[in-house]
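User: Hey, my collaborator sent me this sequence without any context and asked if I could get a structure. I don't really work with proteins. Can you help?
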Amino acid sequence: MLFKKKKTIKVDDEQYELLKNAEARIRQKKRLYYHFVFFLIGSAFLVVANKVLHYGEPYDWFVWAVAAWAFIFVIHCFNVFVTHRFMGREWEKSQREKLVRKQKEKIARLERDVEQEFLNSGPDKTS
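Assistant: No problem. I've predicted the 3D structure and written it out in structure-token form, which is a compact way to encode the shape of the chain:
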């Protein structure tokens, strides 16, 4: 009992990648929700500062501030829900494979060039 071996769960690379992507996606959505809450609280504060506390009263400047913040929030939503679909895990994987393929082709071309240069220079024929 004292030296019982603990059971360990092994996770293969594909499952690990899926878990890692899921965690990143959860963090992304969580940040968006926090942004929404801060947007609501901040907007309310700006309205109160302008209308109740009469800060900068002759103008309704809070409208512009809330509109600008709302625009930034919409961009954030677009990045989380729309851009992520087009540039998600599959897109990253295809881009990674494309770059690796290009690097391999470049390495192969350089090796051929070096080999060709070595064959052309060869041993000295002056002796």
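In plain terms: Residues 49 and 55 are 6 Å apart (CA to CA). You can pass these tokens on to your collaborator as they are.
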